[in-house]
UniProtKB/TrEMBL annotation:
Source organism of this protein record: Pseudomonas reactans
Pfam families recorded: CusF_Ec
Classification via InterPro entries: CusF_Ec, CusF_sf
Signal peptide: 1-21
Domain of life, source organism: Bacteria
Protein name, as recorded: Copper-binding protein
Keywords: Signal
Length: 116
């Protein structure tokens, strides 16, 4: 008898929690019209470096740069390809010394700005 009573009480308790949880998505927002909701739009920070262009691929829209250390992202000196917009590659040639800024998003480094 006690075991049946405990089982019934546990079932009722579990069902009441489930019903309560289902109400949360439909939570009423009455009286909160003036409250501003903050939307998070964090963007990856921009890092800067200087380097020498080793290659430009206008088909893949990349520029390969041999650059010095980049403390902002804890990178040692290296040579790597950066994604770049087509208009950013105009006027650049292999061997140019450049200053550039970039952002790392989704494991890909993308040029923000680049100049000789």
């Amino acid at each position: 008898m006690k075991l049946t009573l405990i089982a019934v009480a546990s079932t009722v308790f579990t069902l009441s929690l489930s019903a309560h949880a289902e109400d949360m998505p439909g939570m009423k927002m009455d009286g909160m019209e003036g409250m501003q909701m903050k939307q998070e739009t964090t963007q990856a920070p921009v890092a800067t470096a200087d380097g020498t262009i080793k290659a430009i691929d206008t088909v893949k829209h990349t520029v390969t740069i041999s650059h010095g250390a980049v403390p902002a992202v804890q990178w040692p000196p290296m040579t790597m390809a950066f994604a770049a917009a087509e208009d950013q590659l105009k006027g650049l040639t292999t061997g140019d010394r450049v200053s550039f800024s970039f952002r790392i998003e989704g494991g890909r480094a993308t040029i923000v700005s680049i100049s000789k």
